[in-house]
Amino acid sequence: MKYLSKSREETNKIATDFLNNLxxxxxxxxxxxxxxxxxxxxAFAQEIGKILGVAENMHSPTFVIEKIYQIDFxxxxxxxxxxxxxxxxxxxxxxxxxxxxxxxxxNLILIEWPGNVxxxxxxxxxxxxxxxxxxxxxxxxxxx
Length: 144
Description:
This protein is of the alpha/beta class. It has four helices and seven strands; from the N terminus they run E-H-E-H-E-E-H-H-E-E-E. The protein has helices spanning 8-20, 41-51, 90-94, 98-103, and strands spanning 2-5, 29-34, 66-73, 76-83, 107-112, 126-134, 137-142. A seven-stranded mixed β-sheet has the order 1-7-6-2-5-4-3. The longest helix has 13 residues, at 8-20.
């Protein structure tokens, strides 16, 4: 599915459609968010959080790498937002407990900059691609 978003409201609708079609896995559901700086990855993650009832403002966890939020959506109990921008190799994410969090089927994991840690992204991860079109427009593309 390819979408053009010209506002946070439109991004919220795209995120809602994505979540409505998301089926929990036997292990954690990993959603890899690809795109350059400013392409809309964090805005999309924030809209996911808003839809799932995250009360606090979700900033991109660039410096802390990972933030965990309690949620109650389908069978998911935790939304884990990871920003791999500062990571240079897979082992850095492994040291943060990646193997453990990806085993838990109750975890919904959003990872920005998955290209920095390609060896640990599961083959069955959902992949969403973001593209900066102009100051007000982003392209969001994913497969169900």
